[in-house]
Structure formats: structure tokens, C-alpha cells
Amino acid sequence: MKSRRKCVIDSNLLVLYIAGRVDLGIIDKHKRLKEFQKSDHALLEQHLSTFTGVMVTPNVLTETSNLLGYHGEPERTKLFQHLRDIISNSTELLVESVAASAAEEFPRFGLCDSVILTIASPDQQVLTMDRALHGLCNKKTPNSSVCFDDLRFPMQRHWQRR
């Protein structure tokens, strides 16, 4: 069943999503995807399928583009073509840098994550690998974020709560 919410996806997970869509073999070869396995792509796809859409920011797209650039041809072109499709089919939210950099968390989190903190809301779930960002999103707005590792390793999450 689809949620009425949209999912705000962080950069490294967007790279995983794109790589897996192009060729699952890229996950094993891409320099920036070493922490992931092919099965993580299926889990990501499954999680994203429960939302009405994906939301991105220009900051996330820029980081994603930079991370995708660490892969060589011939797959690199296909990765960027798929990024183009994501850009065309996602909702892009713009938060002015001056507003994001005014957040007290900016010195610790930087611009991209400060923008994500700004847009986290009950209507938009943030999906990230960054546990600190995840925690702060949920502190500011309860239930506004999911850490992908909690989906990957649910028993570990349960154990950590004890």
C-alpha cells in the first residue's frame, strides 16, 4: 500500500538507486558503493515503492552527480542518463543556501544536509545513511526520517534500543 507521503532521498542512496537501475553489477564495482550489496538495491526499491514519489534538492542532485562521476565508461554515460531521468521525474525542492546555512546545525552538517533538515516534515520522509542526520531530523520532526541501515539490519536496530 502506498503512503501519501513522498520520500526525500539522500545522495549516496540515490547513487545506489541509479546504479542498480542501470546494472546491478555496478554496485560491486563503483568506488562510492563499497558499503552496499546488490540486495540493498532491492530493499531500496521496495521501500521507495511505498511512496507516491521521490523528492530531491539541487544539493542532493549535485552530490549525486559528483559521486556518479567516480565511475568509468561505458557505464558512466548510462548512469548520467538515468540521473537525467530522475531529475525529470522527481519533485525538486529548492531551499535557498542562505536559509539553510542560517541553521545552527550548518557548521556540523554542511549545506546539503542542512537543506534536508529544513525540508524534513511529516509529509516527506527523509531516507538517509547518515545516522546523525536521521536522528536530528526525527528530533526536530518526529517520524520524519528513516536510516537505511535500520531497514538493512532490523535486528541490530532492535538490539541498539535496549
Provide a descriptive summary of the structure in words:
The protein has 162 residues and is an alpha/beta fold. Helix content is 59%, strand content 10%. The chain contains 10 helices and 5 strands, in the order βαααβααβααβαβαα. It has a 5-stranded parallel β-sheet with strand order 3-2-1-4-5, with helices on both faces. Helix 8 (131-140) links the parallel strand 4 (124-128) and strand 5. Helix 1 (11-22) packs across helix 4 (58-68) and helix 7 crosses helix 8. The longest helix has 15 residues, at 75-89. It is globular, with a radius of gyration of 15 Å. Residues 157-162 have low confidence and may be disordered.
In short:
This protein has 162 residues and is α/β, with parallel strands linked by helices. 59% of the residues lie in helices and 10% in strands. Residues 157-162 have low confidence and may be disordered.
Distance N to C terminus: 30 Å
Q: Roughly what fraction of the amino acids lie in strands?
A: 5-15%
Which sequence of SSEs, written as H and E, runs from N to C?
EHHHEHHEHHEHEHH
Number of DSSP E strands: 5
Mean pLDDT: 92
Content-based structural category = alpha/beta
Tally of alpha and pi helices? 10
Specify the helix fraction band.
55-70%
Q: What strand line-up does the widest sheet have?
A: 3-2-1-4-5
Low-pLDDT runs: 157-162
Shape: globular
Query: What integer value in Å does the Rg equal?
Result: 15 Å
How is the biggest beta sheet arranged? 5 strands, parallel
